[in-house]
Design a protein that fits this description.
Elements (H helix, E strand, L loop, with lengths): L1 E2 L6 E2 L2 E5 L6 E5 H6 L3 E2 L6 E2 L1
Antiparallel strand pairs: 1-2, 3-4, 5-6
């Protein structure tokens, strides 16, 4: 289980991918991914869909 970078909730089902700008790992729960909830990279502060 990991914390979603979109909603901040701990989720059992999630996806991980590198930040398109700096390569830091972004974690998104499936709910936020389906709804397109924005996330902010913890390292470089880039915002994504």
């Amino acid at each position: 289980m990991k914390k979603c970078d979109g909603c901040g909730k701990v989720a059992a089902k999630f996806v991980e991918f590198p930040c398109p700008d700096c390569g830091e790992t972004i974690i998104r729960c499936l709910h936020c991914r389906e709804l397109g909830v924005p996330y902010v990279c913890k390292k470089c502060k880039i915002e994504g869909p």
